[in-house]
């Protein structure tokens, strides 16, 4: 597949720290919160967004604070793309479409009191909602940190901390939650190019579905409504369908489906679960 982001923003591989920025947000009078952002274009950064906070600002080396001119938020994924009025970033890193592998070592880069810190972590497991759980000896200050692989690929953002029960040892451990870039990179692409993400031209209303047990539908995107005569309707999608794979990419969230159907220039093949059976649905590219 060829996506607009890859075609229009060709950035050479950089050191993880080079593309990571520290964002400042005043959450209360005299209280400033620091968060990690990753520059994904000369004027855009992506960050894990704490809902309810005031907008972030980026502080230049000179000490000048630059406020964004827009922030595009995905509330259910708790991430945001921040757009600045001018080109601030000479070095940026595109989100990777690759997924981490179980046992893989990752570098987590986030803010620290003295600047930017880099912490090693290991991928322990994959959750049924598409996130990954990471083990690390140091979790301090890593909320919102960016995860990079050994090839310097930007694999995602740390969006939380969860407790995992280890039944065989009768103990519990804390794991960092990694939201992989594959889930949101196409949504970020649409945000970069200013494309409206509301009221899908594709013609569906959908929500994320997490598998409850072995007998239930698989994790994927549950189609709630399909507009008559839309691209989705003509492709054969109907309310109640569950899309869990598109061209071999596991689909966990409507944003991923939206990004694929709005940016891909070739016909896509979606695997759909309907009434206990799977079927293939061909989705033609958007009309020119």
Give an overview in words.
This protein has three domains: 4-93, Trypsin-like serine proteases (Thrombin, subunit H); 105-183, Beta Barrel (Thrombin, subunit H); 198-283, PDZ domain (Pdz3 Domain). It is 12% helix and 43% strand. The chain has helices spanning 4-8, 16-19, 181-192, 231-235, 254-263, and strands at residues 20-28, 31-41, 44-48, 57-59, 65-66, 70-74, 79-83, 105-112, 115-126, 132-135, 146-148, 154-166, 171-180, 204-209, 220-226, 242-246, 249-250, 268-274, 277-283. Strands 5-4-1-2-3-7-6 form a seven-stranded antiparallel beta sheet. Strands 8-9-10-13-12-11 form a six-stranded antiparallel β-barrel. Strands 14, 15, 16, 17, 18 and 19 form a six-stranded antiparallel beta sheet that branches. Strand 2 (31-41) and strand 3 (44-48) form a beta hairpin.
What's the short version?
The chain is mainly beta and 288 residues long.
Write the layout of secondary structure elements.
Elements: H1 4-8, H2 16-19, E1 20-28, E2 31-41, E3 44-48, E4 57-59, E5 65-66, E6 70-74, E7 79-83, E8 105-112, E9 115-126, E10 132-135, E11 146-148, E12 154-166, E13 171-180, H3 181-192, E14 204-209, E15 220-226, H4 231-235, E16 242-246, E17 249-250, H5 254-263, E18 268-274, E19 277-283
Helix pairs in contact: 3-5
Key attributes of the depicted protein:
43% strand, globular, disordered N terminus, 6-stranded antiparallel beta barrel, Thrombin, subunit H, 7-stranded antiparallel sheet, mainly beta, 3 domains, 288 residues
């Amino acid at each position: 597949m060829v996506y607009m982001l890859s075609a229009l923003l060709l950035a050479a591989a950089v050191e993880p720290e080079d593309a990571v920025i520290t964002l400042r947000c005043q959450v209360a009078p005299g209280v400033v919160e620091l968060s990690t952002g990753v520059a994904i274009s000369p004027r855009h950064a992506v960050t894990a967004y704490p809902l309810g906070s005031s907008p972030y600002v980026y502080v230049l080396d000179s000490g000048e604070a630059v406020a964004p001119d827009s922030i595009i938020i995905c509330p259910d994924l708790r991430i945001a793309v921040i757009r600045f009025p001018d080109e601030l970033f000479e070095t940026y890193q595109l989100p990777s479409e690759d997924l981490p592998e179980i046992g893989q070592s990752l570098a987590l880069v986030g803010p620290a009191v003295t600047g930017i810190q880099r912490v090693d972590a290991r991928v322990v497991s994959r959750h049924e909602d598409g996130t990954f759980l990471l083990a690390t000896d140091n979790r301090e200050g890593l909320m919102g940190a960016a995860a990079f692989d050994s090839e310097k690929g930007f694999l995602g953002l740390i969006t939380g901390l969860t407790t995992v029960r280890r039944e065989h040892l009768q103990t519990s451990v804390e794991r960092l939650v990694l939201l992989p870039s594959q889930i949101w990179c196409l949504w970020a692409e649409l945000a970069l190019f200013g494309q409206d993400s509301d009221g899908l031209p594709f013609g569906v209303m959908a929500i994320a579905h997490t598998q409850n047990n072995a007998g239930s539908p698989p994790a994927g995107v549950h189609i709630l409504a399909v507009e008559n005569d839309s691209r989705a309707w003509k492709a054969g999608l109907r309310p109640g369908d569950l899309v869990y794979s598109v061209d071999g990419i596991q689909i966990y969230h409507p944003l991923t489906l939206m990004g694929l159907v709005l940016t891909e220039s070739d016909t896509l093949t979606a695997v759909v679960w309907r009434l206990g059976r799977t079927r293939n649905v061909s989705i033609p590219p958007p009309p020119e």
